């Protein structure tokens, strides 16, 4: 017998070997410690509508207007009018976030954890995005840049954006968000296909309570002012696949560093993006009640007013601590 | 354990006319119950009708008879044997005032 020269390497190799034989996990590349593996064939796994803060009386009027209606997630079998049950990437069910048919409306699903260390933190997901199908002989055959031609379909331009983001706090109330958005199209249906990030922290219910902010219904809650968003890199075309009832699953992987409060990298399918220079603004004020806060959320926002959907087949959150 | 989910579909609805809740996918559930809670004093009556759908786009009334009641407190309606989508149609009688309504869908496997 010999003692391994690099026990840590051996442990990593064993983890890789075991994971590669597991059909559920082998499609992911988790960091050493898996905090959550959420396959929505087995329930909601704690993904819930992001709810705003309310007063001690539980009064509706104390909720921020733009935080009141983020919609409950649904366990969807990806059911469509033309093919019936499409099913998920694995099994039958996916988590579905669905907006209202209202321009600017956002649906959210948030996962609430806390940090037991600092360092690299990663979220991976298999996702698909769609605008709601239309069955109406009077409907338009085009929207924005997309005119039906047997390949292109107006629904592609009716999908606004999906976002994955965090809400993190620690070290005596230092709070910050890291945010990755895929902006597919604008209000007029012009195709953008851009990766974006905000340069301001998300307005909070405390700031509303203090009279600093007050936003109307369907405001972009992550960063309300469009001028506070920046574009990262070149556009990336994804696989919407022609019509709103074909579901193709995309691989998303995003790494941040909670020790340095920095972004690290984002991967969507074959595009690997260095996000280490993407800024992470922190709040000027310190927050209580949030020590070691570790929240991830996904959101979907319609700009066209057509219902927009984000489907998650499964999600893995992992860390190196 | 049986799967379950409680979905708050409306939490600040002002009932000024007939309205339907957003489509909700329920393929995994065998039974459901609606809760319609009137959070502020109003007056009049409402009718609750469950609608079902195979695709989330086209809707038809469920065989259950509508539930009718005063626009006060909580009205509730059970439903079984539905397709893979549910929504609730709330119809207020003329002159009904219901300033703040919460609608909850409780689902069980």
Describe the structure.
- The complex is a heterodimer of chains A (321) and B (109).
- Chain A is mainly beta and 321 residues long.
- Chain A has three helices and 19 strands.
- In chain A, strands 1, 2, 5, 7, 15, 16, 17 and 19 form an eight-stranded antiparallel β-sheet that branches. In chain A, strands 6, 10, 11, 12, 13, 14 and 18 form a seven-stranded antiparallel β-sheet that branches.
- Chain A is globular.
- The mean pLDDT of chain A is 95.
- Chain B is mostly beta strands and 109 residues long.
- Chain B is globular.
- The model of chain B has no long low-confidence stretch (mean pLDDT 97).
- The interface between A and B is medium-sized, with 26 and 22 residues.
SSE inventory with pairings:
The complex is a heterodimer of chains A (321) and B (109).
Chain A: H1 7-20, E1 33-39, E2 74-76, E3 79-80, E4 84-85, E5 94-98, E6 106-114, E7 120-131, E8 142-143, E9 146-147, H2 154-157, E10 161-170, E11 174-176, E12 179-185, E13 191-198, H3 205-209, E14 229-232, E15 250-257, E16 262-268, E17 271-274, E18 293-301, E19 308-319
Antiparallel strand pairs in A: 1-19, 2-5, 3-4, 5-19, 6-18, 7-15, 7-19, 8-9, 10-11, 10-12, 10-18, 12-13, 13-14, 15-16, 16-17
Chain B: E1 4-15, E2 19-20, E3 24-25, E4 31-38, E5 45-53, E6 60-61, E7 67-70, E8 74-80, E9 85-92, E10 98-108
Antiparallel strand pairs in B: 1-10, 2-9, 3-9, 4-8, 4-10, 5-6, 5-7, 5-9
Structural class of chain A: mainly beta
- Rounded to the nearest angstrom, the distance between the terminal CA atoms of chain A is 31 Å
Radius of gyration of chain A: 20 Å
Question: Helix tally of chain A?
Answer: 3
Largest sheet of chain A: 8 strands, antiparallel
Low-confidence stretches of chain A: none
State the total count of DSSP E strands of chain B.
10
Helix content of chain A: under 10%
Helix content of chain B: under 10%
Radius of gyration of chain B: 13 Å
Beta-strand content bin of chain A: 35-45%
Overall 3D form of chain B: globular
Low-confidence stretches of chain B: none
Give the CA-CA distance, first to last residue of chain B. Answer: 9 Å
């Amino acid at each position: 017998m010999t003692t391994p020269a690099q026990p840590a390497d051996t442990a990593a190799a064993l983890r890789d070997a075991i994971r590669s034989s597991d059909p559920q996990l082998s499609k992911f590349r988790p960091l050493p410690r898996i905090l959550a593996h959420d396959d929505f064939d087995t329930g909601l796994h704690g993904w819930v509508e992001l709810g705003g803060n309310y007063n001690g009386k539980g009064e509706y009027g104390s909720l921020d207007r733009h935080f009141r209606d983020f919609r409950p997630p649904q366990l969807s079998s990806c059911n469509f009018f033309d093919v019936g049950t499409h099913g998920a990437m694995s099994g039958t069910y996916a988590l579905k976030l669905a907006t209202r048919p209202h321009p600017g409306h956002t649906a959210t699903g948030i996962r609430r954890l806390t940090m037991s260390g600092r360092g690299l933190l990663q979220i991976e997901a298999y996702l698909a995005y769609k605008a709601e199908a239309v069955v109406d002989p009077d409907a338009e055959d085009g929207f924005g840049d997309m005119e039906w031609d047997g390949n292109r379909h107006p629904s592609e331009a009716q999908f606004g954006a999906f976002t994955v983001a965090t809400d993190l706090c620690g070290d005596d109330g230092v709070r910050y968000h890291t945010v990755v958005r895929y902006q597919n199209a604008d209000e007029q249906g012009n195709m953008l296909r851009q990766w974006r990030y905000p340069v301001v922290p998300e307005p909070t219910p405390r700031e509303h309570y203090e009279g600093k902010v007050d936003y109307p219904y369907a405001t972009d809650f992550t960063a309300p002012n469009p001028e506070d968003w920046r574009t990262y890199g070149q556009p990336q075309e994804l696989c919407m696949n022609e019509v709103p009832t074909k579901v193709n699953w995309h691989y998303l992987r995003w790494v941040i560093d909670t020790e340095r409060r920095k972004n690290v990298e984002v991967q969507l399918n074959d595009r690997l993006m260095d996000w280490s220079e993407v800024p992470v603004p922190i709040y000027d004020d310190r927050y209580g009640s949030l020590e070691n806060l570790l929240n991830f959320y996904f959101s979907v926002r319609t700009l066209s007013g057509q219902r927009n959907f984000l489907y998650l087949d499964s999600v893995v959150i992992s860390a190196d601590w | 354990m049986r799967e379950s989910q409680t979905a708050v579909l409306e939490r600040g609805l002002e009932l000024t006319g007939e309205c339907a809740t957003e489509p909700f996918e329920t393929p995994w559930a065998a039974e459901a119950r609606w809760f319609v809670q009137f959070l502020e004093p109003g007056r009049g009556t409402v009718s609750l009708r469950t609608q079902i759908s195979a695709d989330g786009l086209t809707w038809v009334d469920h065989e259950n008879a509508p539930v009718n009641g005063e626009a006060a407190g909580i009205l509730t309606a059970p439903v079984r044997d539905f397709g893979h989508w549910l929504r609730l149609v709330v119809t207020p009688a003329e002159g009904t005032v219901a300033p703040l309504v919460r609608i909850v869908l409780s689902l069980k496997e």
